[in-house]
Amino acid sequence: MAGWGRVAGVVLLIGPAGSALAGEQPLYQPAPDWAQVATLPDAAPGGGLQVLDIEQRVDGATVWNYTDTVIKLNTPEELAQNSNVTVGWAPDKGDLIVHELSIIRDGQVIDALAGGQKFTVLRREEALEQRELTGILSANLPVEGLRVGDMLRLRMSITNKDDALGGRAQLAVPLIAEPARIGSGSYRLSWRADDKLQWKSFANGVTLKPVRKGAYFELPVTLPIAKQAEMPSDAPMRFRSPPLIEASTFSGWSDVSKVMAPLYATAGTIADDSPLAAEVAAIKAATIDPLERAAKALQLVQDKVRYLAVGMDGGNYVPQTPVKTWDVRYGDCKAKTLLLLAMLHAMDIDAEPVLAHAQLGDAVASRLPTALAFNHVIVKATIGGEPLWLDGTGLGTRLADIRDTPAFGYVLPVRAEGAELEKIALRRPARPTIDLALDADESTSIDLPSVIKVDMVVRGQLASLLTLSTAQLGPKEQEDMLNGLLQNFVGQAQFDKLEAKPDAADGSVTITARGVFGSGWEREDNRSERWLSRVGNLIEFSPDRARASWANIPVATGAPDYAHYRLRVRLPDGGRDYKIEGEGALDARLAGVDVKRSVTMADGYVVVDEVLASSGVEIAPTDVAAERDRVATVISQTPRLVAPEDARRRWNLKGAPSTSQLDAVRSIYAVNAAKADEENVSALISEASFQRGIGDYKAAEQTLTRQIALQPSEDAYLSRSGVRKELGNIAGALADAEEARKLDPSSLGAIGAVAMLTAEKGDVAAATRMFDDRIALGGKSKSDLRLAKAAMVGEFGDPKAAIDELDALVATKPGSPDLLNARCWVKASREVAVDSALKDCTSAMELADSTAHILDSRALVWLRLGRNDDALRDLDAALLQVPSLASSRFLRAIVYQRLGRATDAAADLAIARQLSPSTERDYARFGLKP
Length: 930
Fold this sequence. Notes:
Helix content: 25-40%
Largest sheet: 9 strands, mixed
CATH class of the largest domain: Mainly Beta
Protein name: Tetratricopeptide repeat-containing protein
Number of helices: 27
Keywords: Repeat, Signal, TPR repeat
Signal peptide: 1-22
Oligomer: single chain
Number of domains: 5
Strand content: 15-25%
InterPro entries: DUF3857, Papain-like_cys_pep_sf, TPR-like_helical_dom_sf, TPR_rpt, Ycf3
Domain DUF3857: 66-213
CATH topology of the largest domain: Immunoglobulin-like
Structural class: alpha+beta
């Protein structure tokens, strides 16, 4: 609801600030004399919010919140969104008073309440899913007779008073800023001249000055205010305060502290013969160490009292008693804090409550002293002169973690004599929240998926969620959840063993798993290498401080955290000739994160151990440039594992010293493939990809057939079509391509596959018509279709016609390496204008980023010209870039034979046949045979 939604947000923010004798039904009364009736703006063609007038008056301990809103309903959508008026208020904190609900039509004012219509009151705990009982009531009224073109006006007030504030008043209201549009908007704060009210604005570019009017001061603001300056998202929260006006009759932070103190008095809250006293006695009997006692008390509050925020019946500031909290076994931060305080005091441990803001703590020191500056309360215990910050709403805290510090910034101790703000000195957590160990078997080949054994210990909030999930979810749901979690740490994987075991004593959950995932080996600079560190992925430091207004803003680095990662990789061939490049050892602070890393290689294993720990420090603006450079330098020196040129590849698995990786991959894929169903065929997709990769096309065909039976798709049919082509089953391949095209007639992949296979079966004319029919439709894919047609004709039809088509395409895109390479290939493969083919390939190479396929084409040109040494040089270069390029393997076998290198020729021919059995048949059409 565009109009009322915006207004309701303002009303609810300024509303629940107090407690008074109030009713649970709206009152219908005239507006107070001091409320100004806003003048309607001149008729405007647009709809939406025409008037927003917010007036707040502080009178002693009472805050009166008056709003006047007018919304124009210019469209049926606006009418539907705004014809049902809903307003929320907390009855234990004040009254909802309706002054006017009217329809303005053609200059006439129609009283929408004249016929006796009243708001209906509903109790809706909208935040219950977030574990909150707010006690907010909703007053709802469907406005009768509204029409498109009408304006709907609502004038109302909400009064607030809170006895818990000891006669003080407080408020905070957001100021709507441009580019928000309001026909006429205003905000006005007023207070008695003899009240010692403080106010503060957090809006930039707005000059505010109180005006004395009789016995009151007024602070007027025109809305919307000027657009607020953008702030970088990585700026500390004190630089990102929203545009607010705050007001308060608290005299200072010490006053706030004093007022809150009686609410947390613990004397007499635990009766000697109560069940709670028995819990305290049990802890005292278990240990005499005050630190251990505090840890046990905190564990009891965290583990045995579930969190439920209670804001009703004055509960915004008043905690429920420890006895009630223990009896009902639920409570919010206030209740848990008071319970923990009472237990600690009963054990003679020095402890006090401290108010905090869980999200905006960094900005508290710049705010006006109010209780509104906080949304959380925890316990500060002092043991052995050391402060301990104990949060009863946390989860999984144990003795080892008791010195951990929350990132709450400035907090306010609650004391009878009062206290000032203090800042929590942050430190890194004592234990890793993530402790991950990966054992990877890559002993057969660097091309195969890595077989990993996972041992991951999780602590903190995530551990508690996992513990809850293991108790509530079924086996399949648990497996899905754990699978999704592990993907964040190891990437896409298939697991055959997956288990989570909670450890209540340790406050942790241990996840164990075995699976396969992409090992990370990549071809870079014509060699195979694998990155060994997570630092580059986990630490990113690219703050934008280019704007002059941002130059002096520090960079926030987040809350304290601690993670430990260990990777052990078993290498092929016992690690022979494998080497590590880059900086293995690292002990440095990067972007506020302390990083310690070691990398060792011995006995056929590489072991990487990394610790990343942060304490929430800020990066000073003067250090940003140097820190950015330092982070970039360290990441550029990330250790990499480099494989030897003769490393065993997926086409050379026979005779491998170790087959444990290969055997495990097959086993894990088989286990997961057996679980495939109509909803999830990902295991079959992975298994088929693996089988194609090692040249087992018959097995891949069977796997894809299972996939199609469960979940037919265009991709599945095209995949099986490609496999069947490799196996020489052209009729089956064509049938699959046609099925794919039926599922998606617009698919260029399916159209191309059907046309190429039709041509291969001998009907070039029919294949040409398929392309021509599609080309005639035009569109963005027209050029791609023309290129595909030229390739088909060049391979199966008239090469001169194909070259003419490519000439026309090159004329429109003379800088396209793909077009030049295609023309070079047709000329070379069909032996037409071979001399000019050389120029096409060379020009394509000069324009392309990746040249392997172009080198392959040019090698064929050299072969046709009888220049075998030049052909060999290009093929060597192509295979250095892409060792699995079957066409280059096949061509090199022919070149080797012509050069009298029969052994080398036989080796390459065997590899080509394994990688792509169809390559030999394809080249035979061009008269090229080994």
